[in-house]
Amino acid sequence: MTEAPTVSESEIQIAFWLLALIPFILLFAVGVWMSSKGKLVVYRNYNDLMVVGLLYMIPAVMLAYVLLISEESVTVGSSLFVIMVVLEFLVLLFVFVRTWIDNPNPIKMLLALYVKLPAGIFFFSRVFEAFDGETRSKRRNSVLWALLMLPLLHVLVHDKKNGRALRRLRQ
Question: Which end of the chain is more exposed for a tag (fewer CB within 10 A), N or C?
């Protein structure tokens, strides 16, 4: 008679997290598929991708300034932090409004935001890390992930010809 294999608690936790992530990954895949078929506008053009990139770049750059300056002056550091929060809010509001204009259906808008924000922020974090990584292996890994993200981002961009930022999308 053979004994049943034992399963450790860490293996159960890993399996639980993998099963918990499957619906989120499938929802992301549905958004990418709808965007590739033209049923959903995730990024209007490449400028829209750059605006989403500001959601990562503003805090990354401003927090570095806050950390450098806050040692000398608390008021300058706190005012820079307030400016960063206001800029971040304005960019996020701009992204929401632009996504609503491109996808008037609320469900499609939420799906577009669900795909738009993580993909753009992850891409720009990898690009930023490629220049600012601590070790060569971290920089190389970041470049690899950024290059692997390029075909996905190309599929998610609706208007690949024009780059005018404030033009309304014609359908």
Answer: N
